[in-house]
Design goal:
InterPro entries: NagB/RpiA_transferase-like, Ribose5P_isomerase_typA_subgr, Ribose5P_isomerase_type_A
Strand order of the largest sheet: 2-1-3-6-14-15
Organism: Paracoccus sphaerophysae
Bound molecules: ribulose-5-phosphate
Largest sheet: 6 strands, mixed
Number of strands: 15
GO molecular function: ribose-5-phosphate isomerase activity
Structural class: alpha/beta
Radius of gyration: 18 Å
CATH architecture of the largest domain: 3-Layer(aba) Sandwich
CATH class of the largest domain: Alpha Beta
Order of helices and strands: HEHEHHEEEHEEHEEEEHEEEE
Number of helices: 7
CATH topology of the largest domain: Rossmann fold
Pfam families: Rib_5-P_isom_A
Oligomer: single chain
Helix content: 25-40%
Protein name: Ribose-5-phosphate isomerase A
Strand content: 15-25%
Length: about 240
C-alpha cells in the first residue's frame, strides 16, 4: 500500500478501530465516503483472514461496488431486515454526537440504514469534530419536481429561524447537476452555525419536496476519531 497522508492515516486508524468491533455473525451497515472506504478495506481484510460470516447492507452504490470488488457479499437492507451495527463517516460531529452528513450525497440511504441499526459508530479524522454544527454546508436532498418552490420554503424556514444563509447551492459535480442514488438533487445550505439543530431538522422534514436532510440527531452512539499518529480517541 502506498504511504498514506496524515489525514488518510487518521481515517484508517478510525476505520481499523471500528472494524475491531465487528464480530462473527453480525449484520452490518456499511457507510459511504473516503473514511468508509478505509473501513470497507479493513473489513474485507478481516473477513479474508478470519473467515467471518457477516451480512452487509451498503449505504450507496459506490460502497456496494467497492465491497463487491473486495469480496464482501452485499444484500438489500430489506433482505437482512435489521442491523446490529452501522459504521459510517461524518462531515461534522458535535459533543453530543449529533452529526452533519451528506458530503458525499448519500445521507438518505445512510440515515435509513443507521435508523435500522442497533448501533451507529462514526469514524472520522480530528477535523470533523466541532463545538457547534454548521460550518460545513448542510445537504438537503430534494425532489427535482418543484425545486424552486421547495427552495422558497427552505428560505422562509431559515429566515424565520433567524439563520443567516449565503446562496443555497444546487450541488454540481463536474459541471453537471449532481443526482443522488435515488435520482434526486441536493441543495447545500451554508449556515455557519446551527444553534438549534432539532428545530431546524423538524422544519426541514415538514417541507414538501424535502426528502431528507443531513442532520443526524441522537442517532450515533460512538465516534472513533483517528489521529495522524495512528492513535484513536472515543467520543
Ligand atoms: C456521505 C457522507 C460521508 O460519510 C461524509 O461526507 C464523510 O465523508 P468523508 O469520510 O469522505 O470525509 O455523509 O454522504
Amino acid at each position: 500500500m502506498p504511504e498514506l497522508s496524515p489525514s488518510d492515516t487518521a481515517k484508517d486508524a478510525a476505520a481499523r478501530a471500528a472494524v475491531a468491533l465487528v464480530q462473527d455473525g453480525m449484520r452490518l451497515g456499511l457507510g459511504t465516503g473516503s473514511t468508509a472506504v478505509f473501513m470497507v478495506h479493513r473489513l474485507a481484510e478481516r473477513v479474508r483472514a478470519e473467515g467471518l460470516r457477516l451480512r452487509c447492507a451498503a449505504t450507496s452504490r459506490a460502497t456496494c461496488d467497492l465491497a463487491g470488488q473486495l469480496g464482501l457479499r452485499i444484500e438489500e437492507l430489506d433482505e437482512i431486515g435489521w442491523l446490529d451495527l452501522t459504521i459510517d463517516g461524518a462531515d461534522e460531529i458535535d459533543p453530543d454526537l449529533n452529526l452533519i452528513k451528506g458530503g458525499g450525497g448519500a445521507h438518505l440511504r445512510e440515515k435509513i440504514t443507521a435508523a435500522a441499526s442497533d448501533r451507529m459508530v462514526v469514524i472520522a479524522d480530528p477535523g470533523k469534530v466541532v463545538e457547534t454544527l454548521g460550518a460545513f454546508h448542510l445537504p438537503v436532498e430534494v425532489i427535482p419536481f418543484g425545486l424552486e418552490v421547495t427552495r422558497v420554503h427552505i428560505q422562509r424556514l431559515l429566515d424565520s429561524a433567524g439563520l443567516s444563509q449565503r446562496p443555497m447551492l444546487l450541488r454540481q459535480r463536474d459541471g453537471v447537476v449532481f443526482r443522488t442514488d435515488e435520482d434526486n438533487v441536493i441543495l447545500d445550505l451554508s449556515l455557519d452555525c446551527i444553534g438549534d439543530p432539532a428545530q431546524l431538522a423538524r422544519g426541514l422534514s415538514a417541507i414538501p419536496g424535502v426528502v431528507e436532510h443531513g442532520l443526524f440527531l441522537n442517532m450515533c452512539q460512538l465516534a472513533l476519531i483517528g489521529s495522524p499518529d495512528g492513535s484513536v480517541i472515543e467520543l
